[in-house]
From TrEMBL:
<dbReference type="Pfam" id="PF00239">
    <property type="entry name" value="Resolvase"/>
</dbReference>
<dbReference type="InterPro" id="IPR006119">
    <property type="entry name" value="Resolv_N"/>
</dbReference>
<keyword id="KW-0230">DNA invertase</keyword>
<dbReference type="GO" id="GO:0015074">
    <property type="term" value="P:DNA integration"/>
</dbReference>
<keyword id="KW-0229">DNA integration</keyword>
<feature type="active site" description="O-(5'-phospho-DNA)-serine intermediate">
    <location>
        <position position="9"/>
    </location>
</feature>
<comment type="similarity">
    <text>Belongs to the site-specific recombinase resolvase family.</text>
</comment>
<dbReference type="InterPro" id="IPR036162">
    <property type="entry name" value="Resolvase-like_N_sf"/>
</dbReference>
<dbReference type="GO" id="GO:0000150">
    <property type="term" value="F:DNA strand exchange activity"/>
</dbReference>
<dbReference type="InterPro" id="IPR009057">
    <property type="entry name" value="Homeodomain-like_sf"/>
</dbReference>
<dbReference type="GO" id="GO:0003677">
    <property type="term" value="F:DNA binding"/>
</dbReference>
<keyword id="KW-0238">DNA-binding</keyword>
<dbReference type="InterPro" id="IPR006118">
    <property type="entry name" value="Recombinase_CS"/>
</dbReference>
<protein>
    <submittedName>
        <fullName>DNA invertase</fullName>
    </submittedName>
</protein>
<feature type="domain" description="Resolvase/invertase-type recombinase catalytic">
    <location>
        <begin position="1"/>
        <end position="134"/>
    </location>
</feature>
<keyword id="KW-0233">DNA recombination</keyword>
<dbReference type="InterPro" id="IPR006120">
    <property type="entry name" value="Resolvase_HTH_dom"/>
</dbReference>
């Protein structure tokens, strides 16, 4: 059985072009969504994927109607494959029922993996370069190295309430105790 899926991003767009193409392709059932592709939850797509059984073919008008990204697309097609369901995209002429279509899809998968590896390499190179320039990532420290001796001295003073120390340095009690023990000892190096 051929099952169709169509999606438009806005209310101004019309599903007719897609549904007509899917019906012309021989889809006996067509599921639709009228919402942005950036939206993760698409009830029509979920229904189509749930309905599809082994031996069925899920057909879309264009790849971008099916997946939000190459990674998402590959994940969805793999999910279909595990169920024994084939995939077909009309505009891109991608059809996993044929060996050429499966090869084309594997090339997409290899390109997606290559893209992930490149992004990871770029990120790591950027982090190394930033560290070499003395920059560190993450959230700024709640207490600076310059503040710690004063905080330790205040913690040792029995006349100064913890609440006042927290107010003075604009930190919570939990943050204070991450840096300094109740007796004023430094807990560990936060750098």
């Amino acid at each position: 059985m051929h099952i169709g899926y169509a999606r438009v991003s806005t209310g101004e767009q019309n599903l007719d072009l897609q549904t007509d193409a899917l019906e012309e392709e021989g889809c006996q059932r067509v599921y639709t969504d009228e919402l942005s592709g950036a939206t993760a939850e698409r009830p029509g797509l979920q229904e189509a994927m749930d309905y599809a059984r082994e031996g069925d073919v899920l057909v879309v008008w264009r790849l971008d109607r099916f997946g939000r990204s190459l990674k998402d697309l590959i994940s969805k097609v793999e999910t279909l494959k595990e169920k024994g369901v084939q995939f077909k995209s009309l505009k891109e002429n991608l059809d996993t029922t044929s060996s050429a279509g499966r090869l084309q899809f594997h090339i997409f998968g290899a390109l997606a993996e290559f893209e992930r590896d490149l992004n990871r390499e770029r990120t790591m190179a950027g982090l190394r370069a930033a560290r070499a320039r003395g920059r560190t990532g993450g959230r700024p420290r709640a207490l600076s190295e310059d503040d710690l001796p004063e905080v330790q001295a205040l913690m040792r003073d029995p006349d100064v309430p913890v609440r006042r120390i927290c107010e003075r340095f604009e930190i919570s009690k939990a943050t204070l105790y991450r840096y300094v023990s109740p007796n004023g000892e430094r807990r560990y190096d936060k750098e």
